[in-house]
Amino acid sequence: MIEIVTEVDLFHPPARTWRALTERALLAKWFADSSPGSDRWVLATAALPGYDTDTEVETVELRAPHRLVVRCREAGRATRLACDLTPTAHGTRLSVREVLEEGDWDADARAEQHEQAVTGRLPAILDWLAFQNVDLRRAEGGLTAELPVVRLLGEERRRSRRRPVLLAAGAVTLLAAAGAAAALWATGDNPSAPAALPPSAPLAVPSEAEPAARPTTARPTPSASRRSASPSSSPSPTPSRTPSPTPSTVVTAPLSATYETVNDRLFGYRGEVVLRNPGPAPRPEWTVTVTLHGGATVGSVNGAEAAQDGSVVTFTGAALPGGGSVTIRFDVRDPDPSHNAPAGCAADSTPCTPA
Q1: CA-CA distance, 288 to 317, in Å (whole number)?
Q2: Based on C-alpha coordinates, what's the Rg of the chain?
Q3: What residues does each domain of the chain span?
Q4: SS3 track for 70-83
């Protein structure tokens, strides 16, 4: 006997979870469309991984909102699928158990389908249902609640045991790092000054606050250089020009970045950008920009600081050593279910490539 078991902990009551399992319109949003019926109906599973054709479903046991047992037949295969809902202190524990009774199947593909549906798309629909009950008409500003973010815990352990555990957190926190962006622009205003001045010029910049000290230190310097100017004027430009091209070519080595959607949900996704510095010298400053679709917002971010301006999200972080890399992961909430990736991605001015 081959058996596939998937368990998930949800921050939603059993009644709401039961609706998503049994109401046709909701079932179509996170799993598959179904034809009308009472004890027998048909699920449109022909295009789903792990299934060969549409599935004929017969109800065996129905105890709302705790237990649903059905028998499924598709492509010469018969299985028995049981969904058990157990109330918990924070919501519901859903256990989905499918047993092969007749025929054969690809157990790994079927288990992957269970995981994607039960630990990814189902929680997203429950979040959406919960949001319908939020009162958005508060007089004292702000929402009473925000769309939750689906967070997967223990992904590697879940795949090996075929018992995924999901935690649907109850709030999204938008990161606003305008201060980091302002700091980058502040340092970007001065590079032109050293290019026009000799190497000793930076010493004169901080002395602007003491105008009396600046002439006394500045005058002896040119007078001494003039006495030896005739023999030493020609060699002085030569060493100053020789080292300047070398560091500039190393520092400006272009960065490269790859993008991948690591988790796809009904109303959003989790993206991952891997930024690499192929040059030998460290990059003290770098910027990755991701352009979202209209109405989308960025949530939790790992590996960088983030600031969103309209549809553009700017990521910045610590210095990137030569030959090093940094991984940036971020959650996106998008009201359009058809979007599972941003509209654009670039490292500095270089477009990201698919991972």
Answers
A1: 9
A2: 30
A3: 3-134+143-168, 252-354
A4: EEEEECCEEEEEEE
* pLDDT value for 163: 41
Q: CA torsion sign, 291 to 292 to 293 to 296?
A: negative
- CATH number assigned to the domain covering 252-354: 2.60.40.290
Read off the pLDDT of residues 138-155 as tens digits, 9 standing for 90 and up. Answer: 444 444 344 444 434 444
Which tens digit of pLDDT belongs to each residue from 207-222? 344 444 444 333 443 3
User: How far is it, in rounded angstroms, from Cα 61 to Cα 68?
Assistant: 6
Confidence of residue 111 (pLDDT cuts 50, 70, 90): confident
Cβ atoms of 173 and 143 closer than 8 Å: no
Nearest one of 85, 122, 92 to 13, comparing CA atoms:
92
Output the CA angle 218-224-230, nearest 5 degrees. 125
Which CATH superfamily does the domain covering 3-134+143-168 fall into? Answer: START domain (3.30.530.20)
CB atoms within 10 A of CB 271: 23
